[in-house]
Amino acid sequence: MKINAIKTLLAVLLLALASGPAAAAGGASNLEPSGINVNDTASLQRGAKMFVNYCLSCHEASYMRYKRLSEDLGLSEEMVMDNMIFADAKIGDLMTIAMDPEDSARWFGKTPPNLTLIARARGADWLYGFLRSFYQDESGRWNNLLLPNAAMPHVMWSLQGIQVMSHGEGDEAGQLELQTPGLMSPEEYDDTIRDLVAYLDYMSEPAKLKRKNVGVWVMLFLAVFAFMAYLLKAEFWRDVH
Ligand code: HEC
């Protein structure tokens, strides 16, 4: 009875572990890995700059404070004030926007969601795919492979250029093709999106930076402790043997 209960518990735990990341990525399994590194401070800084320049006009990130940004990303408060805060916000303020949710719903058909926790909801790989999958469909409207008929326009098209869907022979699904080049090469654009997604991932859990560091020390401590426990055991059992 007891063993059965333990078995069930183990099965549930294993299942949760196995399905966790897949569920976070929205169930899509053929996503390209984003390759982000949240411990790369320079990448996070570049991503934060992209975020405030290209996203913070429509999306708010209102669970995040500018001050935290300056502390975690090694930026001085002046640097954040001068380069990242465009409205009359103060350093201790939350990253809110001036756009009225009702207006944006009228303009776009939907209110742009708060992006503070989006990386937890969608997963980094999905975001990396999403921000690289905008294309112009036959009617000249922006569309997106991962979010069909998305109400969001491609706000970084001048950087990426314009992609269209090309259908090869017998290829019904089609694939994206860069029709008009942008200011960046495809590699540069991918790198830029990687920085941006790294920033979104950091923002969804700022404590991650610390948690991972602490984790390494805990593992080291456990290793040393296990070694000492082993020495003790050897010592205690010597006389018994
Ligand atoms: C012009 C306004 C506008 C700008 C600027 C903008 N977005 Fe959006 N975004 C939207 C709207 C509207 C939606 C809702 C789309 C839908 O659900 O169809 C959206 C949806 C999204 C979603 C999908 C959320 C989900 O899970 O359904 C993500 C992710 C996103 N935006 C990220 C970004 C990022 C990153 C930037 C900056 C590069 C950005 N957006 C800039 C308007 C905007």
Q: Can you walk me through this structure?
A:
By secondary structure, the protein is mainly alpha-helical. The chain folds into 3 domains: 30 residues; 176 residues, Cytochrome c-like domain (Cytochrome Bc1 Complex, Chain D, domain 2, Orthogonal Bundle), CATH 1.10.760.10; 35 residues. The chain contains 10 helices and 6 strands. The strands form 3 sheets. The chain has a two-stranded antiparallel sheet. A hairpin with an 8-residue loop joins strand 5 and strand 6. The chain binds heme C. The site of heme C (HEC) has 23 residues, from helix 6 and helix 7.
Key features of this structure:
extended; two-stranded antiparallel ribbon; 6 strands; 241 residues; two-stranded antiparallel sheet; Cytochrome Bc1 Complex, Chain D, domain 2; mainly alpha; binds heme C; 3 domains; 10 helices; 11% strand
Major sheet attributes:
2 strands, antiparallel
State the share of residues found in helices, binned by percent: 40-55%
Number of domains: 3
Rg on CA atoms, Å: 24 Å
